[in-house]
């Protein structure tokens, strides 16, 4: 019997798991995908927003402002990349400048520090690649992180402190028993808990209905992005925002902590909940809007595009965070789109202290063994030569480069394999080490990574996937197909 079962291993679920590991509780997190952070949390802008945009008095405003202030400490404790680079909202006309004034007033009401108006000349001095036709704008104290790295860091620290995380466990049924405990069934087993926290992201509405709790209306919204090669590092120094509109904050130009420049997202409602393909019309929208803000964006050196989905509320324009009135002990967190990543650590504190403890009566006894420190994988690329020598002396695997584009060593890949909570995939290695994220997008290192996975886990190469399910890399050995009468030159092989 678990004290708490969390459904969903995105940034909200993993942040709550880590927060609850501060206490003497048996906590289980169930994730449908093959790894944590594979939904909304793994494909977004990575912006740690300042909090000037949300409507005052909402959960979005409250948790955005508080969460932003927590990220510097969390980055040190959990050893993930975070750049407090700041950001600019740029205005092109008098109407935009009026919006800037409104945003500054909203920032003041929300208690945001570090926001101020800037002239055209001041912005162009700091950001020479911004469109010179701007009239002015504002600066705000935002930051940028790698969202999937944040999720992994929360999850690993939670596991260090006793939380169990089971991936490939899609919830298929939830039943409240006569003693008011819960029976949660997945494709792999049945689990029992005193409380259930629904953090299922795009499927949170389905999980709520499955439990007999509230009907929550969510609308999936897609966003497409481009990623530039690191050779354009420094194209912008801070994040470039246009003035926000009814569909979101607009298309951004983002300097990522690891050196890539990212532009996006688009913002289009969709009926899809579990998809990752891009659309040409959405990518064209991204390009046209990004080049309006930064006309000098290069037309070459885009190394990848990707798409992410987020759950927007229908007729409910705030985070939905509430203990169910219909099913005692069941807690819903849904409609958590932007600024959900920023808000996650503040939401986690709220759920633990104000919902589970104050509203539902769960005893929160501090765990004396709780350790807030998580050490990430030691990346060869960002070490000096003395540190590299020490790594190689300790483990010769660090002396062999596997991914040349991102300078990822065999030592990092072996370390990543040992950290994956479930079956190892190419994606789980990619998001922990960046192997395959560079200019060739895994064209040269994929086979070598598969060799290492096979050696370290014993998994046949035919079973290795990119992201679980049926995303297999190879179908078998060429001799096997030849024996079945298929030519070595047959394209089907």
Could you characterize what this model shows?
- The chain is α+β, with helices and mostly antiparallel strands and about 500 residues long.
- Helices cover about 30% and strands about 20% of the residues.
- It contains 13 helices and 22 strands.
- Strands 1, 2, 9, 10, 11, 12, 19 and 20 form an eight-stranded mixed β-sheet that branches. Strands 13, 15, 16, 17 and 18 form a five-stranded antiparallel β-sheet that branches.
- Strand 10 and strand 11 form a beta hairpin.
- The mean pLDDT is about 95.
Note the main attributes of this structure.
alpha+beta, 8-stranded mixed beta sheet
Write the layout of secondary structure elements.
Blueprint: E1 2-7, H1 11-20, E2 27-30, E3 47-48, H2 59-78, E4 82-83, E5 87-91, H3 94-110, E6 116-119, H4 120-126, E7 136-140, E8 143-145, H5 147-160, E9 164-166, E10 171-176, E11 182-186, E12 189-198, H6 204-210, E13 218-228, E14 239-241, E15 252-255, E16 261-264, E17 268-269, H7 280-293, E18 302-313, E19 320-323, E20 330-334, H8 340-359, H9 385-394, E21 401-403, E22 408-409, H10 410-419, H11 426-433, H12 446-457, H13 478-483
Parallel strand pairs: 1-2, 1-12, 2-9, 5-14, 12-20
Antiparallel strand pairs: 3-8, 4-8, 5-7, 6-7, 10-11, 11-12, 13-16, 13-17, 13-18, 15-16, 19-20, 21-22
């Amino acid at each position: 019997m678990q004290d708490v079962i969390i459904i969903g291993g995105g940034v909200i679920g993993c942040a709550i798991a880590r927060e609850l590991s501060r206490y003497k509780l048996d906590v289980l997190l169930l994730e449908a995908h093959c790894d944590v952070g594979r939904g909304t949390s793994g494909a977004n802008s990575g912006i740690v927003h300042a909090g000037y945009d949300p409507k005052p008095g909402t959960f979005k405003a409250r948790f955005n402002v508080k969460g932003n202030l927590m990220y510097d400490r969390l980055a040190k404790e959990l050893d993930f990349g975070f750049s407090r680079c700041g950001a600019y909202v740029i205005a092109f006309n008098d109407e935009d400048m009026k919006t800037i004034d409104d945003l500054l007033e909203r920032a003041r009401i929300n208690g945001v520090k570090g926001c101020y108006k800037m002239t055209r000349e001041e912005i162009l001095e700091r950001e020479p690649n911004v469109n010179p036709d701007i009239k002015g704008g504002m600066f705000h104290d935002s930051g940028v992180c790698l969202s999937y790295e944040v999720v992994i860091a929360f999850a690993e620290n939670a596991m260090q402190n006793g939380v169990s995380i089971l991936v490939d466990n899609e919830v298929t049924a939830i039943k409240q028993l006569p003693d008011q405990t819960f029976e949660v069934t997945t494709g792999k087993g049945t689990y029992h808990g005193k409380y259930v926290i629904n953090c299922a992201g795009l499927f949170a509405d389905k999980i709520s209905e499955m439990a007999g709790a509230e009907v929550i209306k969510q609308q999936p919204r897609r966003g497409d992005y481009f990623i530039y090669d690191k050779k354009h590092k420094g194209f912008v120094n801070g994040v470039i925002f246009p003035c926000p509109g009814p569909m979101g904050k607009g298309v951004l130009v983002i300097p990522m902590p690891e050196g890539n420049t990212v532009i996006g997202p688009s913002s289009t409602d969709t009926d899809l909940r579990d998809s990752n393909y891009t659309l040409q019309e959405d990518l064209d929208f991204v390009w046209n809007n990004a080049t309006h803000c930064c006309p000098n964006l290069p037309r070459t050196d885009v190394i990848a595009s990707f798409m992410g989905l987020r759950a927007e509320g229908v007729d409910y324009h705030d985070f939905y965070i509430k203990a169910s009135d219909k099913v005692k002990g069941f807690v819903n967190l849904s409609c958590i789109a932007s600024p959900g990543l920023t808000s996650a650590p503040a939401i986690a504190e709220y759920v633990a202290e104000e919902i589970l403890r104050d509203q539902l009566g769960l005893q929160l006894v501090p765990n004396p063994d709780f350790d807030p420190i998580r050490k990430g994988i030691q990346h060869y690329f960002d070490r000096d030569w003395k540190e590299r020598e020490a790594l190689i002396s300790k483990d010769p695997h660090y002396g062999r480069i596997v991914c040349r584009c991102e300078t990822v060593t065999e030592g990092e890949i072996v370390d990543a394999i040992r950290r994956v909570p479930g079956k190892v995939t190419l994606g789980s290695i990619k998001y922990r080490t960046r192997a395959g994220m560079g200019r060739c997008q895994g064209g040269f290192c994929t086979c070598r990574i598969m060799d290492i996975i096979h050696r370290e886990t014993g998994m046949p190469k035919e079973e290795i996937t990119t992201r679980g399910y049926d995303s297999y890399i190879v179908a078998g050995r060429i001799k096997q197909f030849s024996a079945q009468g298929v030519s070595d030159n047959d394209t089907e092989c």
